Amino acid sequence: MVTEAALILPRRLALRILAAAQNAAPNRTAGVVGCDSDGPVAFMQLRNGAPQPETQVVHASGDIQAARFALDGRGLGLWAYVISHPAQAAEPKAEDFRASPYADAVHLVISLSTKGVLEMRAWQRVGTEPRERVLKIRD
Predict the structure, then answer these.
(1) Whole-prediction pTM value?
(2) What are the Cα distances from residue 98, in Å, to 66, 72, 118?
(3) Separation CA 13–CA 40 (nearest Å)
(4) Strand pairing of 106-114 and 77-85?
(5) Which residues 6+ apart lie within 8 Å of 57 measured at CB?
(6) Burial tier of 99 (Cβ tally within 10 Å: 0-12, 13-18, 19+)
(7) What is the pLDDT of residues 82-133, one digit of tens each?
(8) pLDDT at 2
(9) Are 111 and 60 in contact, with CB atoms under 8 Å apart?
């Protein structure tokens, strides 16, 4: 049996991602995590232009393209797509992968629904179903 390696996210980057989700609340937010050959190194928040940003995430096509160019310009690849759920569990909704500009990428899903505690979990689509990945935060 092949065991998947855990995804390792540096603590400083995890804190930056969680702060972006907190600052966007009660609205949902999203972003991308860029990586180099050593792993994740950068986070870029994307604007949410949804008519109901508390429950939806909609990106302008220019924002997605700009994020891709910004990653490429720094010599970075895409490590994960980030999405927040201010009032729900850190589990992807069906539309999260369907509407994602990076449906095949790892998705970091953040929940703000627990008072005083933020939760971030990693998911990846396998076929048509999301499967949770082990996510470890390291210094």
Answers:
(1) 0.92
(2) 21, 24, 25
(3) 8
(4) parallel
(5) 28, 29, 30, 48, 50, 83, 99
(6) middle
(7) 999 988 999 998 788 888 889 889 999 999 887 777 899 999 998 888 999 9
(8) 55
(9) no
